[in-house]
Amino acid sequence: MKRKMHVLASVVALTMALTACGGKTESNTAGTSTPAASASTSTSTAKDTITALLPPVSPNYQKTFEQIAKDFNAANPNLTLKIEPASWEDMTQKLDTQVNAGSPPDIAFIGSEGISKYVQQGMVLDITDTATKEMVADYDKAPLEYMKNGKGLYGFPAYMEVHALGGNKAYLEKAGIDWKKVQQNGWTFDEFREAIKKGVIKENGQTSTYGFVFATKGVAAKDYLGIMAKNAGMPAPFDKDLKYAYTSKNYLGLLKNLRQLIDDGSMPKELSSVDAGKRWNMFLTGQTMITGKGLATFENSAKANNAKITANDGSAVKGSIPVDYIVLPAPTFQGAKASSSTVVDGYVTFRGKKEPTAEHKANVVKAAYFLASGKVAATTNNDLFAAHITQSGKKAAESMKIDRSPDNIIAVDNMLKNATPARPDIPSDLGAKAIKLETEVIVPKFQGLIAGEITAEAMYEAVKTAAIAAFGENGIVKD
After folding, report:
1. Which residue, 442, 7, 376, 369, is CA-closest to 221?
2. Is the pLDDT of residue 17 over 80?
């Protein structure tokens, strides 16, 4: 999600002490080094605790923690899965604090793009030699690749989805937008720009409905630019020759385009103050025709709010209106081909300062796989309206009902055909430098751009200067 895209509501993190990575083993009895794919009862009698730091992956995910821990213990009587909840807002800070202290959780749910950062710090656990063939074979190939860095495998993916946009069906049709055609064929920036102009509604000289709103504050600060860059000929921060891509002329063109949407009046001038929660409220209350970023789960969230409106029980978002949520692709820029921003988040495995025992490592793998497959994955992904990526998850989901728009399913499938491929070839040191540059330069400069404080040219030059300092004159794209 990310992650990375994620669910809207922040959940207040409960206070729980997290056991340091490595767990507490009460016996030195050797266990199997290759846990069974079904996470069946361990043959070892050694007591062990596996810790996990988990955000609200889906709307109902954190409500199931107690049951998940019970189910895991029932399948593995000698093992305890200790879960610490976190909100999306404090997830990264909590994890980084524990990593910097040398005692991260055994498992943390993060976006796959963050793996390189922790590989560079030497705090992630390579499970290549411990994950069983049965576990690996359970996954669709493409999403599993995202959990790799170099030759190492650092956990299991929870889902593979695309970052899309979401439209209000009634508003789209009122503006004369053929949304089914867009779902099938996509749209260019120029087509998108003209479409969202038609979605603007003014009352008494004031804009009551914008054509497009994207969350750009807080945890969503890097999403807008990152998603659109993939559709502008830069599917990754590095090209195939491992040269930093955001010094391309396409990047400058993209920055200009994104600023144009605000100058057109299609997006609010106060866009830099719009966080994920405000963005969604604006969509549900009819203040925008199209919203972003959108995951498939937003259709489910919109349906839930519609039901509350119908029930008239006061629990719906204040001032909200019934909305039919339509999945839409992001536009393409600078004549580039569509490269859908793919979100692969999952259960990344960590280690402490000391190398874990083979037994504990096997138990961590067993717990990570338990969370990422079968019933747990099926329940969570159905809650998200996300595609199932394991055979065990697909089988478990067969008996679960889901109310999802056929048109939206097709739209997501079309975008997945153009999904941005995984890049495990990017060395961890380059990946870590790119994340640092994004955090320290790109995000604050982009905030300044959308706030009207700096120009696209000024931001581009700042990024280029920082990129040369990080990667050298010969380490950047020059076109």
Report:
1. 442
2. no
Q: How far apart are CA 279 and CA 299, in angstroms?
A: 15
- Say whether 32 sits in a helix, a strand or coil: coil
Quickly count: other Cβ atoms within 10 Å of residue 108's Cβ: 30
Residue 48, beta-bridge partner list = 79
- CB atoms < 10 A from the CB of 305, how many? 20
pLDDT tens column, 74-126: 999 999 999 999 998 899 999 999 999 999 999 999 999 889 889 989 999 99
Question: Is the distance from CB of 163 to CB of 227 less than 8 angstroms?
Answer: yes
Cα separation values, 380 from 83, 143, 383, Å: 16, 16, 5
**φ, ψ dihedrals at 350, nearest 5°:** -120, 160
Cα(first)–Cα(last) distance of the chain, in Å? 32
Q: Could you report the per-residue pLDDT of 131-188, keeping only the tens digit for each?
A: 999 999 999 988 999 999 989 999 999 999 889 999 999 999 999 999 999 999 999 9
Select from 233, 380, 208, 203 the least CA-distant residue to 300.
380
Measured in degrees and rounded to the nearest 5, phi and psi for residue 307 equal -65, -35
Domains and CATH numbers, the chain: 48-161+344-417 (3.40.190.10), 164-328 (3.40.190.10)
What is the residue type of 152?
G
Least confidently predicted of 41-45, 254-258, 399-403: 41-45
Pick from 210, 216, 235: which is nearest to 341 by CA? 235
Structure tokens at 253: 């063109």
Give the H/E segment covering residue 424: none
CA atoms of 94 and 116, how far apart (whole Å): 18
pTM of the model: 0.75
Assign 3-class secondary structure to 104-148: CCCEEEEEHHHHHHHHHCCCECCCCCCCCHHHHHHECHHHHHCCE
